[in-house]
Each structure stands twice: as structure tokens, then as C-alpha cells.
Design goal:
3 domains, ten-stranded mixed sheet, 28 strands, alpha+beta, globular, single chain, 14-stranded mixed sheet, TATA-Binding Protein
């Protein structure tokens, strides 16, 4: 009797199991759901050191105008002393106060008056400082230009005197010229300066030094700043084929002696350097169709930047800040930023901090002629590999210059940034070290090149070529 009972139980269980398996075989989605629910480990995870990250999913990042023309530095002058404040905190406080543009142009006639400019700079004020000169019309998130006051005037500083008069000066500090403006009349002056004060509690005392036709602010004391270590990810080159060729058929060339591969048509090419992971896109525009330029055909800086913003939707995979670094002869250089600081490369490396875009004007339309950019981007911040670094004070930089028989007047700009180190473990990770960089014309040199004497030699060679 008991034997028959257990036979019956086994038959019922067998029928039940058969029904369940039949259901999952018929309903594939139910099987996937069950698998995902009880899987103990994701198949796409990979290990880097002690950091676990998901298999990267690459997505373009659309740049915006306010971001690429954001100020590089915010300087406050009080009681004869200069202080560096973290401009991101100040701008956040301003945005919390108002969503309006805080400044307004009142006069579009430039004044060239070094004496008056010195007088303005001698009083307590707030300065927004930019890496390069920018057309005032590009700063539309901060500055309103009323109808009838159009201008192509370029500025590298905005000065807000703290005298409560509401005056504002849009300054080209290289050519000692400026336009006049005012704080937006609908914004209370005291509340605006209070918001700026609130956002600038963390300050670093700075000293002013004269450089080539301008001034720069360097810390009074040396600073401790941590390096940043990140995993690296390579954007697949297939992501760029459609943006470059737009559906056209193309040929593929195998690596040459320099390990460079190319995809190409008659008019366009996409070249990949497998040794450096630098990509170069070239469009061979028909030179016979290019119009000779006259004054009406000149391309404005605004035209170049707006065209670049269009391209970023298809080509930019850098998920952090990017800003305009230079603009010369229809070439724009955009520089990658991290934590408010620009990224440069070790002198022996390609420039992994820069994207370079060259344009031509054809029938009143801007066309991309050449784009060069790195394929590698930052992944995960590996914080336990970070290490403290000492950043020199202004006095220490001055001493280093004197040891090499150099002067501040040799340089167009001195910038604190990150240097991309050359030991990348086959493009698996990168160490970004804070250092001072010296700009001469379009060339950038690191403080290490100052210390080892190579900067002095290169500047001597540069001067010899110029005087030849």
C-alpha cells in the first residue's frame, strides 16, 4: 500500500516538473527573467586592481556653450591682497540667487586706456579670468548684450569692482582695452556680492606677477595637491565610421610602417594610430570651390565654436569638462579638464588632453577639414592609488626661472594643470599629476622642462629662428 502511495507522489511531481520546464522552453523571456534573478555574478564585470566596473558603454556627450567658455580662474582682491576662489562654488551660488544673466553691456566702444585700467585693477574687485580671449557674445550665460550694441570685442577677464556702483568692465588685459557694462539692474548688488562671498570662503592667497604683456596670479605658499589615477577605456573606432563617412562605401588600408591604419574614400579618411590611440579625421574639400575671402567672408570665433558644438554630438566621448584653449587661423584647440584643471601630456607623449579642429569656409558655410583627438577616455577613479604632490609657490617658480636665467616676461601664460604620465600599462590606467605649465605662443612646456634646463634651450632655439 505504501509503495503504491510513493509511486503516485513521484508521478505527480514528474508531471509538475514537466509542465514547468515546458513553460520555460516555450516562453524564452520567462527563462531569461529567472536566470537574471538568480545569477550570482554579472558576466560583463571586469576587475582593475580592487575596483570593479561595468563593461563600458560608450555614449557621446553633447557640449554646451556655457561649459566650453567657462572661466578658468576666479580672483578676489581685498585690502591689497589677491585670493584664488573656487569658481565652480561661486557660480553655483550665483545660479541659486538668480537664473538671469548677471551682467549687461552698456557701451560697445572699446577704450584703450592703460592708466584707467590700472586704476580699476588697484581697487578691491572680483575677476573672472579665461584661458584665451573670447568674443563677448559667447559669454551669453553671464552677459546680456542689448539690441543695437553688437560687438565682436574679445575679452580674457571680467572685472566687478566692489565699490557698489554696479559698474563692470569687460577687459582685454593683453591690449589694455575694455568695454563698460553694469550689473543687471534687476539684481540686487549687495545680494550678488553676498552670494560671491558665500561661494568663496575657501581661499588661497596669491601674488601677482608680470608676464608677457599681461599678469598672472601664483600662490604665495606652496600647495599640496593629490594626483589622480584612473582606469582607461578605448572608444571603439567603429563608433566614428558613420559620423565620418555618413553611409558611403570606404576602403580599408592595413597598418603601415608607423602602425597607422586607415579607412578612406576619395574625399575623406579616418586614420588610427595603434601605437598612440590617436585618431585623425581628414576631409579633402575641393579647393577649386573655396571662395576667396574678403572682410565679409571672415569666419567669427562664434561661428567656429557653434560648429564645434554640432560636431561634439557625434565625436565627443569625454564625459567631463572641456574648454576652449586656443583659437588661431581657423583652428580650435579644446582641452580636457578634470576637477577644474586642464590636462596636458608628458612631453614624450602625444597630447592626450587636446582635441584639434581645423575648418575651412566654403560658400559661406564652415566645413571640418581636420580633426585630431585621442580615442582613450577616463574610466574609474582609483582613489587608493592617489598620492600627494607638492605644487610650487610663485616665489619658488621665480627662483627656478632665475636659476635658468629666464624671466616671467618670456611667457604668455602660466597654468596649473594635470600632466598625463607616460606609464599607462598598455593603456589600462593613467596617473594624472598636478604641475605648472608655461605657455609660449602656441607651445606648452612643463615645470619639469624648466627644472632640467630643456625649456631654456628650446626658448633659445626659438629666439634664434625668430631673429634669423
Amino acid at each position: 500500500m505504501k509503495k503504491r502511495f510513493w509511486i503516485s507522489v513521484c508521478l505527480v511531481l514528474a508531471i509538475f516538473i514537466n509542465i514547468v520546464f515546458s513553460y520555460f522552453l516555450i516562453n524564452n523571456q520567462a527563462f531569461k527573467t529567472l536566470y537574471q534573478k538568480y545569477s550570482d555574478f554579472p558576466k560583463s564585470d571586469m576587475q582593475i586592481g580592487e575596483v570593479t566596473i561595468d563593461q563600458p558603454y560608450f555614449q557621446t556627450h553633447q557640449l554646451d556653450l556655457a561649459g566650453i567658455v567657462a572661466p578658468y580662474q576666479l580672483i578676489i582682491k581685498e585690502a591689497g591682497k589677491y585670493y584664488h576662489a573656487y569658481q565652480s562654488q561661486v557660480i553655483q551660488e550665483i545660479h541659486e540667487l538668480t537664473d538671469q544673466t548677471i551682467l549687461e553691456l552698456t557701451n560697445n566702444q572699446p577704450q584703450i586706456d592703460p592708466i584707467k585700467l590700472d586704476e580699476i585693477m588697484s581697487k578691491n574687485h572680483i575677476q573672472f579670468i579665461y584661458l584665451t580671449k573670447l568674443s563677448l557674445s559667447l559669454l551669453e550665460d553671464m552677459v546680456e548684450i542689448p539690441e543695437g550694441l553688437s560687438t565682436q570685442f574679445k575679452v580674457n577677464r571680467i572685472i566687478l569692482p566692489k565699490d557698489q556702483t554696479g559698474r563692470v568692465y569687460f577687459v582685454d588685459s593683453i591690449n589694455k582695452s575694455f568695454l563698460e557694462g553694469r550689473i543687471n539692474p534687476s539684481i540686487n548688488n549687495k545680494k550678488l556680492f553676498s552670494a560671491i562671498e558665500s561661494g568663496s570662503q575657501d581661499r588661497i592667497e596669491m601674488l601677482e606677477y608680470d608676464i608677457n604683456r599681461d599678469t598672472v596670479y601664483l600662490p604665495k605658499e606652496s600647495l599640496a595637491s593629490p594626483s589622480q589615477v584612473y582606469s582607461l577605456e578605448k572608444v571603439p573606432e567603429n563608433n566614428f565610421i558613420d559620423p565620418v563617412f555618413e553611409g558611403a562605401n570606404f576602403d580599408i588600408t592595413q597598418p603601415d610602417l608607423n602602425n597607422v591604419r586607415s579607412y578612406h574614400t576619395y574625399n575623406s579618411s579616418l586614420m588610427i594610430d595603434d601605437d598612440t590611440n590617436i585618431m585623425t579625421v581628414t576631409h579633402h574639400n575641393n579647393q577649386n570651390n573655396l571662395r576667396l575671402r574678403n572682410e565679409e567672408d571672415l569666419v567669427t570665433q562664434r561661428d567656429l565654436l557653434l560648429k564645434s558644438l554640432e560636431l561634439s554630438e557625434r565625436f565627443n566621448y569625454w564625459g567631463k569638462d572641456i574648454r576652449v584653449f586656443s583659437d588661431h587661423n581657423n583652428q580650435l584647440i579644446f582641452r580636457r579638464f578634470l576637477a577644474g584643471m586642464p590636462i596636458f601630456s608628458d612631453p614624450t607623449l602625444p597630447d592626450y588632453g587636446a582635441s584639434k579642429l581645423n575648418f575651412v569656409s566654403q560658400y559661406n558655410q564652415l566645413k571640418l577639414e581636420k580633426l585630431q583627438m585621442p580615442l582613450i577616455v577616463l574610466g574609474v577613479n582609483i582613489t587608493d592609488l592617489s598620492s600627494p604632490q607638492l605644487v610650487e609657490s610663485g616665489a619658488e617658480i621665480k627662483e627656478l626661472l632665475e636659476e635658468q636665467n629666464l624671466k616671467f616676461s618670456k611667457f604668455n601664460q602660466i597654468i596649473l594643470g594635470f600632466e598625463w604620465q607616460k606609464d599607462m600599462e598598455n593603456f589600462k590606467k593613467v596617473n594624472l599629476v598636478p604641475k605648472w605649465f608655461f605657455v609660449v605662443g602656441t607651445q606648452v612646456y612643463s615645470i619639469d622642462q624648466l627644472k632640467d634646463g630643456s625649456l631654456r634651450i628650446m626658448l633659445q632655439q626659438r629666439d634664434a629662428r625668430t631673429n634669423a
